[in-house]
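Pasting as-is:
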Amino acid sequence: MQKDIFVTGIGIISAIGNNSHQCLQSLKEEKTGVDKIKYLKTIHKDSFNLAEVKMSNEQLLDYLNLPGSEYRNHTRTSLLGCIAAKEALDDSQINLKDKKLKTALISATTVGGMDKTESDILNSDVNIDFLYTHACGDSTNKIAKHIGLDGYRTTISTACSSGTNAIIHGIQLIRNGIVDRAIVGGVDALSKFTLNGFNSLMILDKGFCKPFDENRKGLNLGEAAGFIVIESSKSLKDKEKQAYCKISGFSNANDAYHQTASSPEGEGAYRAMKSAIEMSPFKAEEIDYINVHGTGTSNNDLSEGTAIKRIYGEDCPKFSSTKAYTGHTLGAAAGIEAVFSVMSIREGLIYPNLNFETPISELNMIPETQLLKTDVKSVLSNSFGFGGNNSSILFSKL
């Protein structure tokens, strides 16, 4: 069984940049993508801040060199996914025409083509194109077509842990010899359905989210796409391109505590982190950085912090949430945070937790608040979803 899994490519589009280079610059400059609503058509335009990708649908089509008429076949979700997956593929220098090696695409999403459904269902011309683009799997098929992949592809939808579970599925395919390499990650576009749904749960911050802060008021929603390319040693050996890092551990756990809330003890988060670390050659105290799920909601941050303290006690590793930069991007969250984790190791950076002021009284945990340049050998990235579906993945230096 293939054991070592290497990361050779990264691709991302988010509210802080249209590619990995731009996103890295925004992280370094502590530049948030959260702002007033510009593109989403909603009655809440003046009520909430969102982390929107800074391009209209027409501009996204231009970015992909697609004619405007092609939008009838695409949703904003699939357009974002095409951009990030293509960047990851180009970065990895994979040639999909080489049929000696098998390549898979595993894409995660939570709302699929909901953005197009919302606009087209009210179309007075009774445009039914949305019937074909609504399903979550449609965006995966559109991404595969755009990058020229005709092999195995599938879609994962497990709420906000979807992206990590897509990566885990790709790892399992490689380890069992089903494919040699995989393009894995997630994508989600903003929609009224998402905004109204989270508003009904009363967990949206009307200002700027403050992950792991005592005075946190909720999350800022965002949209993005993030993909990484993972390969076996067999796939890697004949390439000039060197890997960025490898994946040393992963885990998915479900405590099934509540439909939307995390358990007070952080049971699922604890199991996911603990198992991912135990799979790896690292001891818990050797983890250099945790990219926490850190949504900024009262329940999530307390539960995740409790889980971390169950593992580490009072001696926690350096940690931060990057969601104050990008918003919470649901099915894309783990994909873009996988890209951030890889860049953390490659660049030797630990990102600041924006907007933090006061530690949570029950935890007294202080995230990193300034950009830190240091040698990063290992990063644990957390992604926790509704229903208690919790996943962690451990990236490590070669």
